[in-house]
Amino acid sequence: MLDPIYLMILFAGIGNGAFDVFKKIGKDQTYNQYNLGEESQDYLQGIAESYFIDFEAAFAGIRKDEVMREIRYYNGKVLSFPVWCLEMKGHDIVSKLAKVYPGIEGKYRNEGDLQKALVVVMVKAFPFVPLDSVELLGSIGTAS
User: Fold this and answer.
1) Which residue segment(s) compose the domain that 105 sits in?
2) Residues 109 and 91: beta-carbon distance below 8 Å
3) Whole-prediction pTM value?
4) Buried-most residue among 31, 94, 120, 138 (CB within 10 A)?
């Protein structure tokens, strides 16, 4: 899953002018983006909504208000994301993100590079971690 909040955290750390993430999330440059999960649920949903609007503007046929699914986080937050966002995968993810956010072009060669970067975000943003991820890691740890 390409969590929109995690992507904003990741892009804020790029520092190459990918786009003004801090302005987008309403924070100044001194804000620690890994603390974003501590913000209110409404604030986080608003950040996700702006991400969906960006995608809707870049790609005909993608709508931010399509079928939504709730994502529950370890820290108790619950956010709603469109199903298309949760199911986006494959080799074109990076190129789609680069079309929406041109400043990241060339930063991630493929989905694997992006996923590795997002795992680091997940660790640093703990306990703002999707419960599905926590459960998956737990099942891997007990599968021996």
Assistant:
1) 4-141
2) no
3) 0.83
4) 94
